[in-house]
Amino acid sequence: MVGAVETVITPAMVNGTVEILAVVAKPLPPVVAQNGSPIEAEGEGDAKAKKNREIVLGKNVHITCLPVTEPEANDELTGEKEAYIASVLARYQNTLINRTKHHLGYPYNLDFDYGALTQLQRFSINNLGDPFIESNYGVHSRQFEVGVLDWFARLWEIEKNEYWGYITNCGTEGNLHGILVGREMLPDGILYASRESHYSVFKAARMYRMECVKVDTLVSGEINCADFKIKLLANKDKPAIINVNIGTTVKGAVDDLDLVIQTLEKSGFSRDRFYIHCDGALFGLMMPFVKRARKVSFKKPIGSVSASGHKFIGCPMPCGVQITRIEHINALSSNVEYLASRDTTIMGSRNGHAPIFLWYTLNKKGYKGFQKEVQKCLKNAIYLKDCLRKAGISAMLNELSSTVVFERPKDEEFVRRWQLACEGNIAHVVVMPNVTMEKLDAFLNELIEKRSTWYEDGSIAPPPCIEAEIGKENCACALHKC
Amino acid sequence: MVGAVETVITPAMVNGTVEILAVVAKPLPPVVAQNGSPIEAEGEGDAKAKKNREIVLGKNVHITCLPVTEPEANDELTGEKEAYIASVLARYQNTLINRTKHHLGYPYNLDFDYGALTQLQRFSINNLGDPFIESNYGVHSRQFEVGVLDWFARLWEIEKNEYWGYITNCGTEGNLHGILVGREMLPDGILYASRESHYSVFKAARMYRMECVKVDTLVSGEINCADFKIKLLANKDKPAIINVNIGTTVKGAVDDLDLVIQTLEKSGFSRDRFYIHCDGALFGLMMPFVKRARKVSFKKPIGSVSASGHKFIGCPMPCGVQITRIEHINALSSNVEYLASRDTTIMGSRNGHAPIFLWYTLNKKGYKGFQKEVQKCLKNAIYLKDCLRKAGISAMLNELSSTVVFERPKDEEFVRRWQLACEGNIAHVVVMPNVTMEKLDAFLNELIEKRSTWYEDGSIAPPPCIEAEIGKENCACALHKC
């Protein structure tokens, strides 16, 4: 799962027309973007333009831009520039408050209070390089970082002296690192990942020049292990590097880790011929708090786990955690021929504030606090799904997931207002700790009220059948509702 | 240049002995680490241990760690946890103040005041994906990001509608992106980089499975174009991807971009057979403000330029800027076969606070402000070099550079106290805007005083000859001083 619904390539619309400053690639299906991507530029909804929707690659359209202006010589006297900056920031803050209030589609916990850490903003805190190796740069926060890593090591059941890890910039960096470690362990390994894996997994394959095999998924979004087996057997001569999703981006589906391991073993892959990276961007942190969930644990033959810090925990900026086995890092480092040998992280300079934010929340909430929040999220997700179904709207909720998938609202303005992430005919809400029942009620009331107007005109097609996406039993279209 | 002196692999020392929890690779020369890395864990200086110095790879030694502890049930009543966290943070803040005060070795401007932005810390600001394409996630800062990018585009002389770029997490991400763009443009291209290039360049070659040829350097640290030519001619059948350093990590040397281009042309490489990435982590931003400097400009046949935001500008967390030509991004995107096609940045989720910090400083200081600061830095760097030479200490300062290279102080405690970056027998101070003449005087006085004691005992070897590193004319060893 993870970095979650992050890619977006949409046309830039300026004054209702699609402005193309660059090469235009293959057209997108109407009102659809892969990866649950939203579709259009803010404030634009021209129906004609929608029809002309195309992917514009490498676009550079200055839809919204706050230009940097050169200060005047007398600025300090007049205070004009100061006043301008202050007014921009005040307006921006209002936008942020409003946008934070109406947010449901991304798995970010927007409910945090880091007031106690405000004073640290005046320091340039940088954990450059390996977290376990002191740098001469003294303004760092390694002591917090290692504390946080230990916590995650305990969560995923690996001994302190057996793991290696670091705080990343986001879920993508965790996946890039995990897959790189896998490739260095098994240089001619093939990367296997389900179609519903996060796009960063496929990006890694491309960056690293790895052969990549996509595996089919079940309706739930989980990897289809029958198909996985067929593909493994077709490539028996090469080792396997597998990305296992602990919560897919769109449907919040959790791949069956035990079944994946079983499939590998049954297909004749011994433990030295496979490497498993668990992409646990969101659920990697939630699952351990659900008693009946399959465990993500280093007691199983997995190589690495990554999770995001700005999602379930909540953080002002994106960040993540990557944990792997220490012997893999040794292999990674000793394999290197040149300078890179002392280089264990993907990035060089690393944000030293992020570990402090995480450390603070982990200390304040603890296991028990997270457990309570996970339970609340799962309960509220069930509530949302039930209300949608009662209102006759197609909806699906995977077991142990807080991602409610439902019929894509017809009105793009509504989608934008609630910042829903969409893919094809489906949208989703990810119920995070900041999503209260009251917020869900407000959303539901608005959806139900607006929806009744979307389909009242007979000239418009009825709500689509989304059996293919969420299964017959969850579909409430004209054909399936009875 | 840049991410600058960031890698460090040193032994972890616990109670004065080298603790090795992992595989030990090849031994390091005494008191030396590549990449200007410091050598030991804070607070340790055992001479015996120093002799046993070795690289420990994939180490996981919990030298300093603030553990996360589970809150007690009655924490809210007693307030104990709250008090514990507050005391940790207060102590930490004192350390940061002290460490910020005594800092000279890394090219970070620690002098900034972002008090006006404090209120934004409570928002989860995320510019996921491409900066020019709106995401449905509303809590972003693209309007600031594009404003900052426009400013850099102007600085490096490329039209608004001809560039593409984004705010990165650090200099390394810029290099990873620039070299990836180069590889996608010229898939079988060989990567050429001088030996003194930043380690992230060689990391990129490894990650991307590219052939990489190291080019010799001059004593100044600049790329040796005679050697470059020989290596180009030996590989004439393959296109060339070149990393040009706008300020190397250790010596602050600026590769001669014009001569590199000339060498390519003279060696028979037409413009469609080479791609130049300029690693301008520090000087990419300073050079344009020095009138007599060779220009980094997109009017020349270069493909991309990256710079760091936390260095000369100053920022609480690492960040950077990457600018490339829009047509390269089109090529990058349309080449892709699978999902990754809509993916233009290396990371997925992206820190939305960093662009606001940069926007704020650019607006406040402007071209004129930076120009003034660059001049001050160059002037202070000359002052430092002159004082060192007057005191009989070997020292070098490249023209147009603010990185003063000098004889490595004998005492590791002193190196650590001033957070100097070292490599072999040399150390450096990077004069940033926060490095005042008073600070330099304090440093010089302490160095000169301590140094007189390091060499007074006849049993210790005299100050080393560093002719090889900085040239005969800059060396003040017994042999060269007269």
Automatic annotation (TrEMBL), chains A, B:
Catalyzed reaction equations: L-serine + H(+) = ethanolamine + CO2
A Pfam family per the record: Pyridoxal_deC
Similarity section: Belongs to the group II decarboxylase family.
UniProt GO molecular function: carboxy-lyase activity; pyridoxal phosphate binding
Keywords: Decarboxylase, Lyase, Pyridoxal phosphate
Isomerase in keyword set: no
Modification sites for N6-(pyridoxal phosphate)lysine: K311
SUPFAM superfamilies named in the record: PLP-dependent transferases
PANTHER family with a match to the protein in the record: PTHR46101, SERINE DECARBOXYLASE
UniProt xrefs under InterPro entries: Group_II_Decarboxylase (IPR051151), PyrdxlP-dep_de-COase (IPR002129), PyrdxlP-dep_Trfase (IPR015424), PyrdxlP-dep_Trfase_major (IPR015421), PyrdxlP-dep_Trfase_small (IPR015422), Pyridoxal-P_BS (IPR021115)
GO biological process: carboxylic acid metabolic process
Protein's name in the database: Serine decarboxylase
Co-factor(s): pyridoxal 5'-phosphate
